[in-house]
Amino acid sequence: MKIDNVRTMVLVGPDDHGVGGQSRHWHVLLVRIDTDAGLYGLGEAAHFQDQTLGVRQLIEGKMKSYLLGKDPFAIRPFVTNMLYGGLPPHQPAQSASATPFGPVAWAVSGVEMALCDLVGKALNTPVYNLLGGQYRRRLLVYLDRSTPADLNDLDAWRRLAVEAREDGFTDIKFDLDYAAADYTADSWNRSLTLPQINRIVERLTAVREAAGWDMEIAIDGHMQYDVQSAIRVAQELAHLKLKWFEDPTPVVNPDACVAIRAKSPIPICLGEVFVAEQFRLFIDRGACDMIHPDILFAGGLTETRKIADYADLNYIPMAMHNNSSALGIIACAHVAAASPNFIGLEYHFHDAPWIGQIADRNGQPLFEDGHVVLSDEPGLGLTLNNEVCRQYLASGERLF
Ligand SMILES: [Mg+2]
Question: Which of 100, 301, 323, 352 is most buried (CB neighbours < 10 A)?
């Protein structure tokens, strides 16, 4: 069996509850790899709202020309070649200087997902079996709620928690940097003022009271703060029993995260844009309590399994960052199923139903009681919902 085509397709549509509760448009970049045996695999790649970052061009350019005529079973050699290169006379597909992060890793991730789906179908087994086998078939999902659009409306904060609970979810997350954006005194100095901290505490306390004490609530700092502001707000929120404080500072400096972790009563979770080597650095330095990889940024499902196992060797749990569609979150669930230290999988698009309907699993709902429930179907166990894809096809795109 040889690969005989690699294609991409972009969908676009509304998301009524983006960051800060604001409406926005969301793009989805899908990948399809075909073979001369008639089998094909589907993947999703990080798109970041537009087509200017080169991900699509990498997939349809260098990666396609590398893959044409090749055996789709050689998944790890593909990833290694693209991210880490090889000694001469091996000819790397990218350049002599391997680039193991950024848009190259994002493009690799989408292609690798499609190869995993394809190989699972070829072997007539679910992708989680390619990744070591299934610890669990129900994968806990946490909903990203960001904030309400009207920050002063405490009932709107409460509703975000209550609606999630009524829809079967036990875990939710809010965006700390948007939580009192109406009190930001200086957009550039990374500091929280006392009035701003007070409003954050009031609003998240309203959420906790509405959610009850058995619901898990996490917060995301979006890499915005200085060390002392992160420590101060974490200490003021200690009584709310939060699950984690994500990305308190820019995550290029493990020492800053070590300093925060030493004084934060809330566990520190990070790594949504990391590749494996960055996780190794932060874990070795004691800079995190939990990791938060994204299979669309880390280099794919098999790279993320490697990251999960490195964390597990250090007894560090793994939550999974995710802002992909139904297709990507099902792929995440296969990694989660095969990783012993998995504790939760993110989903952003509870308020944009079309994004959750892109993939079809014989009519099985995307979530059941706040979980993705995996089947025994081969590959990722899904097909594209062509009706939804046709409806949201971006201008100038062709359906696979
Ligand atoms: Mg985040």
Answer: 301
